[in-house]
Amino acid sequence: MAEADSSPSLNIIVESNPSKSRLSELGIKSWPKWGCPPGKYTLKFDAQQTCYFLKGKVKAYQKGSSECVEFGAGDLVIIPKGLSCTWDVSIPVDKHYQFESSS
């Protein structure tokens, strides 16, 4: 019998300074770009998002948790589907991003 996925901890995966070959393999330069000024943003991810930070510094607090995950310029970040979090942006963000198309 398969267990229902009721795991409350959806983990953000941060890959620091991925190689140029990894970035070109992913086709990051062709992904759309998004940016935001410093501030706090409440975000809900309805699909898995992979993003590569060109600039910025973010502390992401998962909903209901006081622990944060930090990431920023030079990081490849994978945000799981279903995650609700608050981004505390201290340095303006400029990133390439892609949503997972499969469900």
Automatic annotation (TrEMBL):
Task: Specify the superkingdom.
Answer: Eukaryota
Does Signal show up as a keyword for this record?
Answer: no
SUPFAM superfamilies per UniProt:
RmlC-like cupins
Q: What protein is this chain from? A: C-type lectin domain family 6 member A like
Which Pfam families does the record cross-reference, listed alphabetically? Cupin_3
Under the heading PANTHER family, the entry gives: OS02G0620400 PROTEIN (PTHR33271:SF35), OS04G0445200 PROTEIN (PTHR33271)
GO MF annotations, alphabetized: carbohydrate binding
Residue intervals of the (S)-ureidoglycine aminohydrolase cupin domain: 23-97
Source species of the chain: Actinidia chinensis var. chinensis
Q: Does the keyword Ribosomal protein apply?
A: no
Name the keywords, alphabetized: Lectin
